[in-house]
Amino acid sequence: QVCELEDHRVTAGCTAVCCLVRGNEIVCANAGDSRAVLCRNGKAVPLSFDHKPSQERERARVHAAGGFIREAGGHHRINGNLNLSRSLGDLKYKQNRALPPAEQMITAQPDIIAHKITAQDEFFVVACDGVWDVMSSQAVVDFVRPRLRQKRSPASIAAELFDHCISDDPKQSGGLGGDNMTAVIVQMKPGAFH
Question: What gap in Å lies between CA 68 and CA 156, rounded to an integer?
Fold first, then answer.
């Protein structure tokens, strides 16, 4: 069901990503540009994929729902505003009564992907775009891995990751390092899933 904006004062939105370890697999669901990344023997393996307006399937849905995508400064924005194409909330982009929720300009419909756990899997990181805008998936794996090997706690590593990402002056960095940041680091127990 589509919510009517005049009945709801909430106009903001958020992205979502979650991982579930089930048997010998990790099931990841995401909507937006939060991301989950697995470290497999030191290499970053994507558990999720960002939803951006520049992607053809996302662009097609936006146009079919009556929206437009504008490119400015290397960023694609839906109706000149949002730089992501899936989120929870953002109700003003979900007002087309002729379309089901999954076909709205901005949809909360997640991608759900299952990944088989291997003996080489060490940990995974689930974080929002405030981290991924500053560091690549491989850079985060390279940051976290040696610290875990030093027997540091995942919580202390996440705090250090934020300190590494945050900008002293977001005006100087073009806004990078000035967004909200959240992260969870999950260590895999060797042999626990085999």
Answer: 42
